[in-house]
Specification:
heterodimer; B: Rossmann fold; Alpha-Beta Plaits; 6-stranded mixed sheet; 12 helices; about 40% helix
Chain lengths: ~240, ~325
């Protein structure tokens, strides 16, 4: 049974990569947007580009995973294609995990390209023992967040619109645009409630001259993963009750 | 042996009961039709049986697998053709088949061969590399059925298989369904086309407002209508506003308006019906086009059993 579920999760993710992710809209949202954003900061202050790299990677993780994830499930629910998947010997939870894995794999591809590109061109040597766990758990967290928004809202445009709210809130409050320590206390507290804050913190640790342990960030991000993925599973199951 | 056993299956959406304590059995190798107008609960019944919706009450088993506890096992044995062709537009015909085959865990060689065989059988081999989104409705329907057969199921569920198809495509599809039946496949088919149920099904269950009102063979259902005379009268002029008057002239009959100038009259004494109809045509200066005494059809049986006008069904066909 577990084997069947794992097989289905993989094939659903592979199919989604092919039909949704490796397409211009997803690629532009997933890669072009963070690069353009970072370029704007670079042009403003070219000497500090190395400091922008963790932020660039964090935003690539956020936007690449949620680029299509936030609409894929919703879109397939409307077309009835999710039902097509559920006609196979697979549980609703596995279908959702397959969708999350699709966003994860696409995010991994985009993030790997951005990370390798910047690290090689700038001669950076991040601590891989910090970078990899923080990167992987973050990809899962934001892919699950996209999936949750996709099942919460009935319309595709609603999911995209409402996802922009936390997405841009996170971009502004995660410490990339403005240091968290320099924010008013209220905003500092809000930033502690946002998963991207821990991604940026973990990535800064990985790229710093004296790397710090990512354990705390990984634990907090794991909690966010559960907070996103379980309600998403429950809501999807509810659609088929 | 029964392929499917259903006991008291019920589905409620809030206070609305879509399917109300439905019970039936389907024997191995038979085509079992569920006939009813749109909104009668056909699709809801099928959705519960294939695991897409949880019953509020009742239980069912498919090839011995209980629906509540063994749905995943049951899914390995069934193929489902939903009422809409919901394959992936972006994938080719062959890739759609292969994708579903992968979900069922078919080994690579088996799925490749099975996909090619099905493309041949369904006449889609030449278009195997074309995207599903470019197909005509009939081709989409054919590929959707092919996809439901990719894992060689024992039971095939067909929900309104010919809806939206043109006459030729619908006829081809019915031939295909008959062929699958000949090969021993058990088929559950929902339809609101009376002629489709009559043509294809070994047994037919008539579903009205979520309840099975009668289950029998097509012959058995027709015999219920044989006890009464059925006369079809075509007038030369429109008379839809005058049905009340005609009804008043012909006591102990049921009159169904089939067209603005065409009626079917059920029951009553034939000679009295004819006499009354002549007088009616004369009094209203309608003229008579034709009068036929006809053998009861499934439509007649349906009317007698349900009390519904076949126009309700015809309207939902989109004029086909």
């Amino acid at each position: 049974m577990l084997c069947d579920d794992l097989r289905c999760i993989y094939h659903i993710a592979a199919k989604d990569m092919r039909t949704y992710y490796l397409k211009p809209p997803a690629i532009s949202w997933g890669m072009v947007f963070p690069v353009a954003w970072t370029l704007a900061f670079y042009l403003r202050n070219p000497s500090n580009f190395n400091d922008l790299v963790p932020g660039l990677i964090a935003m690539t993780i956020l936007f690449s995973t949620t680029a299509a994830e936030a609409v894929v499930i919703n879109f397939e629910l409307r077309l009835g294609s999710i039902e097509r998947l559920l006609l196979a010997p697979v549980s609703t939870n596995s279908v959702l995990l397959g969708k999350v894995l699709g966003g994860f794999l696409f995010g991994l591809l985009m993030t790997s390209m951005v990370t390798l590109g910047t690290a090689l061109s700038l001669g950076l040597r991040p601590d891989l023992l910090s970078l990899i766990p923080v990167g992987l758990i973050s990809l899962l967290v934001f892919s699950s967040m996209g999936a949750l928004f996709s099942v919460v809202f009935k319309e595709v445009f609603e999911a995209q619109t409402f996802l922009n709210l936390p997405r841009f809130l996170m971009v502004f409050l995660c410490g990339v645009v403005y240091p968290i320590s320099a924010m008013p206390e209220g905003l500092q507290r809000i930033s502690q409630l946002l998963p991207l804050t821990y991604t940026v913190k973990g990535l800064h640790g990985a790229f710093s001259a004296s790397p710090t342990s990512p354990l705390q960030d990984v634990i907090v991000l794991s909690v966010f993963l559960f907070l996103f993925v379980f309600p998403a599973m429950k809501l999807l199951r509810k659609r088929f009750e | 042996m029964n392929a499917i056993e259903v006991h008291g299956l019920t589905k409620r959406f809030g206070s609305f009961t879509a399917v109300d304590h439905v019970s039936f059995e389907v024997k191995e190798g038979e085509i079992f039709g569920i006939l009813g107008p749109n909104g009668s609960g056909k699709t809801t019944t099928i959705r519960m049986l294939v695991g897409l919706s949880r019953p509020t009450e009742g239980k069912a088993s498919i090839l011995g697998f209980d629906l509540a506890s063994g749905i995943i096992e049951a899914k390995r044995k069934i193929g489902v053709v939903p009422d809409s062709s919901n394959l992936y537009d972006e994938l080719s015909a062959k890739d759609n088949l292969l994708f579903m085959a992968k979900l069922y865990g078919l080994p690579k060689k088996v799925r490749e061969k099975r996909a090619e065989d099905l493309l041949e059988i369904f006449g889609l081999y030449e278009r195997r590399d074309d995207k599903f989104g470019t197909f005509s409705r009939g081709m989409k329907r054919a590929l959707t059925i092919a996809t439901a057969l990719i894992h060689d199921p024992k039971i095939l569920f067909l929900d309104e298989p010919t809806v939206g198809l043109d006459v030729v495509a619908a006829r081809n599809l019915r031939t295909l369904i008959s062929d699958l039946h000949q090969k021993g496949l058990t088929i559950i088919l929902t339809t609101h086309y009376l002629e489709e149920a009559d043509l294809l099904c070994d047994r037919i269950a008539i579903l009205v407002k979520g309840k099975f009102v009668r289950t029998d063979t097509s012959m058995g259902l027709k015999s219920l209508a044989e006890e009464q005379s059925v006369i079809e009268i075509a007038f030369r002029k429109e008379m839809s506003d005058l049905v009340g008057d005609l009804s008043a002239r012909l006591p102990q009959t049921d009159i169904v308006l089939l067209d603005n100038s065409l009626v079917k009259i059920y029951g009553g004494d034939s000679s009295q019906v004819l006499k009354g109809a002549f007088e009616f045509a004369n009094d209203h200066n309608l003229g008579l086009e034709s009068i036929n005494s006809i053998k009861p059809s499934l439509e007649d049986a349906f009317i007698k059993i349900t009390g519904l006008s076949p126009l309700v069904m015809a309207k939902e066909k989109g004029g086909r």
